[in-house]
Each structure stands twice: as structure tokens, then as C-alpha cells.
């Protein structure tokens, strides 16, 4: 039973990571680097949970503060911190889409461990695991797409990237906080707002994936190689 629950808890994160990894059209990232960032996101779960608990005990459980600061603010900052200091200046970060790949890896590492913890401690039914796969886990992936998209823009921006780096943190915090706030405050009618929000995030994320790929400096190189292939 435990093995089945663990497998069901890990599978959504692994599937989503594979999906966004395979969306990289030009020079996919080394799998070892992607796994490393996934593990970095997984390892940060426990210090984040301790910090969140300490903040709640110190300042109370105001729904707005909990959603946008204690939950979204703390979690997205730690993910952003890992991305900036571990990968932003790395030689493997050589095209805009790489920001999305690595941000999604960190986010899904975090989401997968969080999902395993909640599934083991509060398992009620398989439908609960499906709910967590479609909402919390995919939500983390989509927040990661937003973060990575703007971090990729900042990396290859010709001017000063500080504004884009700030946006790469601000937007995920906003979307994550809005997601949490809807679930906390609208206990009876949350689905009427969460579904449109998730549809919007998926649509915007797929647009960001295509846009980031289209801005790759490697695009011209790969196009030339395709032209030179013998017929």
C-alpha cells in the first residue's frame, strides 16, 4: 500500500518534468543538471516547512498573509534563490528556455517531496492523490514556468536585468498566493475560480514555452544544420 501511494505521489512530478524537458527544441540540458536542480528543490522543503511554521506561530494565521507571504512568498523565494545562485550564471544556462527547464525542475522537486509528505500523513483515497496531481503539483510546475521564463529573459537581456529578475520572483508569488487564497477563503466555491486560474496558467505557460524556444540563440545554428542535411 505504501509503495503504491509513494508511486502515485511521485509520478505527477516526474511526468511534468519530462514533459517540460522534452519541450526544449534546441540543445536539451544535461539530464544530470536537471536532476541536480530537482534534488535541490526537494531538499529545501524541510527548512521551508520549519520556517513557515515558525512564522505562523509568531504572527498568526491571517489568510491573506498566509497565502501571499508565509506560503507563496517563502516557497517561491527559496526556489528563486536556488535558481539564481546555482544555475543563473552556469555555463549550461545558454538559452532562454533553460530558465524554464531548471525552474520547473526546482519547483517539481519541491512539489514532489511535499506531495509525498502529505500523501503519507493524510492519505484518504486515490481521488485525493489525483486532486493533488492536477492542482498543487501542476500548480508548482506552472509557477516554475513563469519564474524560469523571466529569469531566462533576464539572463539574455542586453540591458540591466534587475527588473526582470524582480518580475521572475514577483509573478510566481502573486499566482501562488492567489491560488492559496482561493482555496483558503472560498471553501465552498473554490472550484469556480481555481479551474479558470489553472486554465489561464496552462495557456500562458505553453505560450511562454514556445516564445522562449523561439528566442533561442541556438535556433539559427540548428536551422542551418537541418538545411545542410543530405536529401
Structural commentary:
Belongs to the protease PrsW family. The chain crosses the membrane at residues 6-22, 34-59, 65-87, 99-121, 133-150, 162-183, 189-207. InterPro entries: Peptidase_PrsW_arch/bac, PrsW. This protein has 9 helices and no strands. The protein is mainly α. The chain has one domain. Helix 5 (96-121) runs antiparallel to helix 6 (126-155). Mean pLDDT is 88; it is low at 225-231.
What's the layout of helices and strands?
Elements: H1 2-22, H2 31-43, H3 45-59, H4 63-86, H5 96-121, H6 126-155, H7 162-185, H8 191-214, H9 219-228
Q: What is the compact description of this entry?
A:
With 231 residues, this protein is an all-alpha fold. Helix content is 81%, strand content 0%.
> How much β-strand is present in the residues?
under 5%
Rg computed from alpha carbons, rounded to a whole number of angstroms: 18 Å
- Compute the average pLDDT: 88
Principal-axis shape equals globular
Kindly give the count of domains: 1
Amino acid at each position: 500500500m505504501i509503495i503504491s501511494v509513494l508511486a502515485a505521489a511521485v509520478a505527477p512530478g516526474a511526468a511534468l518534468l519530462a514533459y517540460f524537458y522534452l519541450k526544449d527544441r534546441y540543445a536539451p540540458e544535461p539530464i544530470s543538471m536537471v536532476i541536480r536542480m530537482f534534488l535541490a528543490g526537494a531538499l529545501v522543503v524541510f527548512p521551508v516547512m520549519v520556517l513557515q511554521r515558525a512564522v505562523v506561530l509568531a504572527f498568526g494565521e491571517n489568510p491573506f498573509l498566509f497565502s501571499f507571504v508565509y506560503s507563496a512568498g517563502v516557497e517561491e523565494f527559496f526556489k528563486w534563490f536556488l535558481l539564481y545562485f546555482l544555475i543563473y550564471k552556469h555555463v549550461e544556462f545558454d538559452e532562454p528556455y533553460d530558465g524554464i527547464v531548471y525552474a520547473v525542475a526546482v519547483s517539481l522537486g519541491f512539489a514532489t517531496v511535499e506531495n509525498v509528505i502529505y500523501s503519507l500523513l493524510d492519505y484518504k483515497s486515490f481521488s485525493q492523490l489525483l486532486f493533488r496531481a492536477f492542482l498543487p503539483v501542476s500548480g508548482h510546475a506552472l509557477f516554475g514556468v513563469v519564474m524560469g521564463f523571466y529569469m531566462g529573459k533576464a539572463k539574455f537581456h542586453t540591458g540591466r536585468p534587475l527588473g526582470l529578475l524582480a518580475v521572475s520572483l514577483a509573478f510566481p508569488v502573486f499566482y501562488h498566493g492567489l491560488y492559496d487564497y482561493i482555496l483558503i477563503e472560498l471553501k465552498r466555491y473554490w472550484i469556480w475560480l481555481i479551474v479558470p486560474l489553472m486554465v489561464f496558467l496552462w495557456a500562458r505557460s505553453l505560450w511562454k514555452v514556445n516564445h522562449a524556444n523561439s528566442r533561442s540563440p541556438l535556433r539559427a545554428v540548428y536551422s542551418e544544420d537541418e538545411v545542410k542535411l543530405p536529401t
